[in-house]
Write a structure and sequence with these properties.
The complex is a heterodimer of chains A (607) and B (94).
Chain A lengths: L2 E9 L2 H8 L6 H9 L1 H7 L5 E2 L5 E3 L24 H8 L10 E9 L3 H9 L4 E6 L18 H8 L1 H6 L8 E5 L5 H6 L5 E2 L20 H12 L4 E5 L14 E2 H16 L10 E5 L1 E2 L22 H11 L3 E5 L30 E6 L23 E4 L13 H19 L11 H10 L20 H8 L6 H4 L1 H4 L8 H4 L1 H4 L29 H6 L18 H5 L3 H18 L24
Parallel strand pairs in A: 6-8, 6-10, 7-8, 10-12, 12-13, 13-14
Antiparallel strand pairs in A: 1-4, 1-5, 2-4, 3-4
Helix pairs in contact in A: 1-2, 9-12, 10-11
Chain B lengths: L6 E7 L7 H8 L13 E4 L4 E7 H11 L11 E3 L3 E4 L6
Antiparallel strand pairs in B: 1-3, 1-4, 2-3
The chains are: A alpha/beta (607), B alpha+beta (94).
Chain lengths: 607, 94
């Protein structure tokens, strides 16, 4: 007997609210709270109804469209919060009124009993409605599909606010758009205001002005890179400016790319301006559509499968210089490939687009569903390609109806990489700042899609700005709260100057005009040590300093010294001087650390 | 070299400093004007000391013979390589 699923809309109570807050992953606690609810118990009491505890309970306000059931999102993501809306809904949970909240849970029932069960459920207290949970197949994006969402949706998916709060916004990072050229005026007219460096841009021939090229594919890519890296500095590397007679669309030759990469290597090697980092992110939303464009596989001069090809070599060289290089995977996905693929959809990630030292980017729409034209792996140079998925096919730059293709997915991820580089700038020789470590960070934080773990459709999953932002947030450890004994002021014994003479060297302090010599009351303890007290003095060496048992002089707190009046300071130094004189100020005891007579950090003696 | 003439990239090893187009022309006994002046001589792998020029296919064959590209002992890193056209992966076309 086949089963059908029912969605039960119900009032909230404290237990349901708690279960919903715990999420949809049906933790044991969540299930317990769910079963404590009277509404859930009543629903379970209906003959043949089995509550789906794995589905859990969902607050309708967490679902797109708020409390409107008509807008229920059947693809609601069951993963932990991955967008700003998800985050916000959890953060604000406590502040939301409980009584008016509406929740939904799922139940299973035999198909023949479904109608009767629904009627019985409707009679239960707290149940607002019962609906069929119809199986849905997501609509796949294909060439010509209308845009899904906008660049704002992508911002939300990438948690750009969280990235910015973590200080990751592309500031100080160069982003080279290797493409058809950029039109900065258009990008600014669309509300993005990145930096632009004309001097370090490149055009393949005279007569082209970087940053002022016709609005087209390159401008779209530049706009999309600014979604996650609004403060990056763009370089216009206008590679795809055909110089062939009769060319009908923006195209180029791979030799132009070799020239462009030579320029980028020079950029990486050139001295940086003051305050600049060495971070360079290189976006490549281009490639080959068909193997016939290349020498055949097996030919020694082939590009697609040959790591020794000059372009694949120079990609390695640029990566070795520390650039983060991203390539779009291509638009030859088997479900609905670009017409230029001419039906070739297997092993369609050619040449550098599958280079082991680049991030190869597949495309998903804003619902995290793979777009049908996104090329699938394996790659030709490295097998596990693509590496990662980025968002595409959304309304954004205004250059096209949709910023589409893996062309748009690639700069979306490039922007995230640039944002990371603001916080983790490239430092030559530091393995944690290498391009490989950034690739690892991007792939290891990705939200897994498709089959569990790596797959040839999505790579390691969709780029996850939320998770990256969490990794980039500075770790603040309140050491004094966790380990209070480390932060107790350490009392300093009176023989501090004998043991650490460098701390007690008299230092010039500004003293206002004062009658000299300063009249001093007789010292309480000269000479020191007094006869018979040598043993007491020696015992200081073995004393438990943390115990404070001897009423010691605390010099660890500089602010305490600042509170002393000039008279009191003079008294203190007079005392120290007297003590030094008695002990022999020239006694060259070794400094406790370093031995360079520098005051120890944290000690108030250093004035 | 005319713009529409089919070209290939030729990669070869150098010793010491990367050569300039004049030195390359002399080394392979080819006319200097056969080497694409805009492309010049580009170091593609400084570790392996490989550089690349852009030349018409017939000139590349002359160089291949000298590099022993078609010989069994020829280096797979040296010789002529394809110069395919490339295009943006822009909004996909039907």
């Amino acid at each position: 007997m086949s089963k059908v699923k029912l969605l039960i809309e119900m009032d909230g109570d404290r237990n349901i609210a708690a279960a919903a807050e715990m999420g949809l992953d049906a933790s044991a606690d969540g299930e317990k709270r769910m079963r404590r609810s009277k509404t859930v118990t009543a629903a379970e009491g209906v003959d043949g109804v089995e509550i789906d505890t794995e589905f859990g309970v969902t607050a309708m306000s967490d679902i797109a469209g708020g409390g409107s059931f008509a807008a229920f999102d059947f693809d609601f993501d069951a993963a932990p919060p991955e967008t700003e809306e998800d985050d916000a809904s959890l953060e604000n949970f406590d502040a939301q009124p409980e009584v008016d909240e509406c929740y939904v849970m799922r139940a299973e029932v035999d198909e023949k009993d479904a109608e009767k069960a629904a009627e019985a459920l409707m009679k239960k207290s707290g149940v607002r409605g019962v609906y069929a949970d119809v199986p849905m197949v997501p609509q796949m994006i294909c060439p010509g599909s209308p845009p899904q969402g906008t660049d704002r949706t992508v911002e939300s998916r990438l948690c750009t606010s969280a990235l910015r709060r973590a200080g990751a916004d592309g500031d100080g990072v160069l982003v080279a758009i290797v493409d058809t050229g950029i039109n900065m005026a258009h990008i600014r007219s669309k509300g993005k205001n990145p930096g632009f460096d004309a001097a370090r841009s490149w055009v393949p021939r005279a007569g082209l002005t970087p940053g002022n090229l016709p609005v087209g594919h390159g401008t779209m890519c530049a706009f999309d890179a600014c979604i996650a890296a609004p403060k990056c500095t763009l370089l216009d590397i206008a590679l795809l400016q055909s110089n062939r007679t009769g060319a009908t669309r923006m195209e180029g030759f791979l030799s132009d790319a070799v020239r462009a990469y030579q320029h980028l290597i020079r950029v990486m090697r050139a001295p940086r301006r003051p305050g600049e980092t060495r971070s360079l992110v290189v976006n490549n939303s281009w490639g080959m559509f068909h193997p016939s464009w290349d020498f055949p596989v097996g030919h020694p001069g082939n590009y697609s499968d040959n790591p020794g090809h000059p372009f694949n070599r120079i990609v390695t060289t640029l990566a070795r210089h520390g650039a983060d290089i991203l390539f779009a995977a291509g638009n030859c996905g088997s479900d609905c490939p670009d017409g230029r693929c001419r039906g070739v959809t297997t092993r369609a990630i050619y040449g550098a687009n599958s280079h082991p030292q680049v991030l190869s980017v597949a495309g998903v729409d804003t619902t995290k569903t793979r777009v049908g034209y996104s090329s699938k792996g394996p790659g030709r140079l490295a097998r596990n390609k693509p590496d990662i998925s980025g968002y595409t096919h959304f309304a954004g730059s205004g250059v096209y109806a949709a910023d589409g293709g893996t062309s748009a997915a690639c700069p979306v991820v490039a922007g995230v990489v640039a944002a990371i580089r603001t916080k983790r700038p490239y430092i030559a020789g530091n393995p944690s700042r290498s391009p490989a470590s950034i690739r690892r960070m991007v792939t290891s934080t990705a939200q897994d899609l498709g089959t569990r773990g790596y797959d040839f459709s999505h790579g390691y999953g969709v780029v996850n700005g939320c998770s990256i932002a969490r990794q980039l947030r500075p770790i603040i450890i309140d050491i004094c709260r966790l380990r209070p004994h480390l932060c107790r002021p350490i009392p300093v014994p009176p023989d501090i100057c004998r043991r650490f003479p460098h701390l007690c060297r008299p230092r010039p302090i500004p003293v206002p005009p004062f009658p000299r010599p300063i009249p001093r009351p007789p010292l309480p303890i000269p000479p020191f040590p007094r006869p018979g007290q040598e043993a007491d003095l020696a015992s200081y060496d073995d004393m438990d300093l943390s115990s404070g048992e001897a009423g010691m002089l605390d010099l660890s707190d500089a602010s305490a010294l600042e509170e002393l009046s000039m008279d009191e300071l003079a008294d203190l130094f007079y005392y120290i001087g007297q003590y030094q004189a008695l002990e022999g100020a020239g006694d060259a005891s070794p400094a406790p650390s370093g031995g360079d007579n520098k005051p120890s950090g944290g000690c108030g003696c250093n004035g | 070299m005319t713009q529409d003439q089919p070209t290939v990239m030729v990669q070869f090893r150098y010793e010491g400093e990367p050569p300039d187009p004049v030195e390359v022309a002399k080394r392979f006994s080819i006319p200097e004007e056969a080497i694409d002046a805009d492309f010049g001589v580009i170091v593609t792998d400084e570790v392996e000391q490989l550089c690349t020029i852009l030349v018409p296919i017939d000139i590349a064959e002359t160089i291949n013979e000298q590099l022993g590209r078609d010989m069994p002992e020829g280096s797979p890193d040296e010789g002529s390589f394809s110069n395919p056209r490339i295009a943006p992966f822009g909004p996909p076309e039907d």
